[in-house]
Design a protein that fits this description.
Structural class of chain A: alpha+beta
Number of strands of chain A: 27
Oligomer: homodimer
CATH superfamily of the largest domain in chain A: Fumarylacetoacetase-like, C-terminal domain
Radius of gyration of chain A: 20 Å
Strand content of chain A: 25-35%
Largest interface: A-B, 68 and 68 residues
Number of domains of chain A: 2
CATH topology of the largest domain in chain A: Fumarylacetoacetate hydrolase, domain 2
Shape of chain A: globular
Helix content of chain A: 10-25%
Number of helices of chain A: 7
Distance between the termini of chain A: 47 Å
CATH architecture of the largest domain in chain A: Alpha-Beta Complex
């Protein structure tokens, strides 16, 4: 298969939303193609909950139909909806390069990487209710901020609106409260992956985030792909992760190839401003899931776990503007000859991911001016 | 009316869960008493979404029936369920005394109150999927921790398991993404309040919380009342809040009596170990809601916003054990003649609230040993 592949929810001409399987520029209407009842709902949640055996049977049959020339709906005729009801949304901080870059900017007077960072995948909960599907415009948030020289905070439209390029995984099969999941349980619980743009208002975030973490600097919107790419289609993209030093505690150890070789890029105003790869993430997805449940917390169908910003070691491989522009000190050029530090009204951002022949669903969003 | 009053979900002998209106030790079965279809669901969400006019009509009719001697189910025969599907869970940090006490313990070398605290209600997102109803046992969480003298972190059962006494409000009517709610919109969106025990593993929290805030130190369980007390029953308990200095920015200003005069107590092992009052909270509920949406984030039916630990200025009015025992340095006595610093396996904690004649639904939980 070629092009973007994944399961999502679509409608045509205002009809009832239904589950579809996208391959490239066509969408197979699963509800209308003789699939089981999990696929007749207006969200993927029932299918996600059905478990690995069903996932793989449905995928196999869907691929067979598409490759056999079954009728598909042209993507351009479809309205794409949020593919699943997001239960809880967790955002990690799993890129060593990103955590180091951010630490340097936010805490210039201390060690950029905090002492806990190499021992556990740092993460926090985000707002599930404001996760939106690719294509949804993003209204520039207002908020409180205070520059170092200001005597008091101000309230107004964010002046440092940023993106974060992330890869998220989606839980299908729930776990039981009070029971930890080992890293090896990952494939039985997780259905697939989506690209995530964790829009971030850096001025709001900088003023609010101590001591309890990001809140309004992030909660105004988080965009995800309209199509979940099943892990089963990425089998040949699992590669060795970076070496972890020190070795993680036993509950976070897992042998094998658990990094995902997915080439990523960020386009801003028709210009690719960053290219990187998800395989460089220090903490792997099975470790993230094991950590999140190590205290007995349960996961539910529809839980979304995002990687945190994916930045590589090289200039031009950073997954956010605050890193790419060194907090605005080094503007970057975009296609029309202008430059950017942070996002301007009207800017369109597109995240793309490619895993060999398979593309992930893109994440597209345009900035609208702040509301009065 | 006297005793605990509120709307919840109950079942009898394994029957279908249904909506009930509790007064004292009796529960009016609303689905069986001629109410509208919103009240025939196995959760309160549809009723919560129906809006203030319906809330008040249903409350009026339910009170009329109970006072008229309508048959009620004895509470002791009912199994009480989580009263609503929690959408997003936000936890604030609105008690000046608590924030000061915790700042002193967690950051002994700097100003206990951070510079942002008096300008906005600090908050963060918690895990909605692990909110449980009063009576649910709480398994002692495992997690990573590192004492200052340890050379490396350890993983094991929390040794500093704590409670947090909080008051939460529950959103009924959703708002629109991209649009802020002014503080004055509070009563049109918020249905009522519940007591909240935000169980906290202090050792896990201390090691993980920088820079992105609490995660596994909190996410293993959060207990709430089985009964939501409608704001309409608390009209005469709204009182003047503490003076705010400096005056908040315009979007957080609201005139009038928005503090809630609710007497609170914490019982541990049959001993009342803390008595305080919600009226002392520095940030009011309408300010919390306005802040949370000030960046355009939307709220949904079932959103739970908790106050953060409610501590008063006096010894014995602190809402957590870490404060009551000065981080374990001053054990407190409990009923059987023993002492406590943090929670031991088998300990039962009960939170109670009283607003004049009306009681809030209690929050009860017993600690089970960590799972192997």
């Amino acid at each position: 298969m070629n092009g973007a592949v994944g399961f999502g929810v679509f409608s045509i001409d205002g009809d009832e939303p239904r589950v579809g399987f996208r391959v490239g520029q066509g969408v197979l209407d699963l509800a209308a193609s003789g699939f089981s009842s999990e696929l007749s709902e207006p969200s993927l949640n029932a299918f996600l909950a059905s478990g690995r055996r069903t996932w793989e049977a449905v995928l196999g049959r869907a691929v067979e139909l598409v490759e056999g020339g079954h009728d598909v709906v042209p993507l351009e005729d479809a309205t794409v909806h949020l593919p699943f009801e997001v239960a809880d949304y967790v955002d990690f901080y799993s890129s060593l390069e990103h955590a180091t870059n951010l630490g340097r900017l936010f805490r210039p007077d201390s060690d950029p990487l905090l002492p806990n960072w190499r021992h556990l995948p740092i993460g926090y909960h985000g707002r599930a209710g404001t996760v939106v599907v690719s294509g949804t415009p993003v209204v520039r948030p207002r908020g409180q901020s205070k520059e170092p020289d200001d005597s008091a905070p101000r309230f107004g439209p964010s002046r440092r609106l940023d993106i974060e390029l992330e890869l998220g995984f989606v839980v299908g099969v729930p776990s039981v409260l009070g029971t930890a999941l080992p890293p090896a349980a990952f494939r039985d619980h997780v259905f697939g992956v989506v690209l995530v743009n964790d829009w971030s208002a850096r001025d709001i975030q900088a003023w609010e985030y101590q001591p309890l973490g990001p809140f309004l600097g992030k909660s105004f919107a988080t965009s995800i792909s309209g199509w979940i790419t099943p892990l089963a289609l990425l089998e040949d993209r699992f590669v060795a992760p970076p070496v972890q030093d020190p070795e993680p505690l036993p509950h976070l150890r897992i042998a094998g190839n658990w990094a995902l070789d997915i080439e990523l890029e960020v386009e801003l105003s028709d210009t690719v401003v960053s290219r990187t790869n998800a395989r460089g993430l220090y903490w792997t997805m099975p470790q993230q899931l094991a950590h999140a449940t190590s205290n007995g917390a349960s996961v539910r169908t529809g839980d979304l776990f995002a990687s945190g910003t994916i930045s590589g070691p090289d200039t031009g491989s950073e997954g956010s503007l605050i890193e790419l522009t060194r907090n605005g000190a080094r503007p970057i050029g975009v296609g029309d000859g202008s430059t950017r530090t942070f996002l301007e009204d009207g800017d369109e951002v597109v995240l793309r991911g490619r895993a060999g022949n398979v593309e992930l669903g893109e994440v597209r969003g345009t900035i609208l001016p702040a509301r009065p």
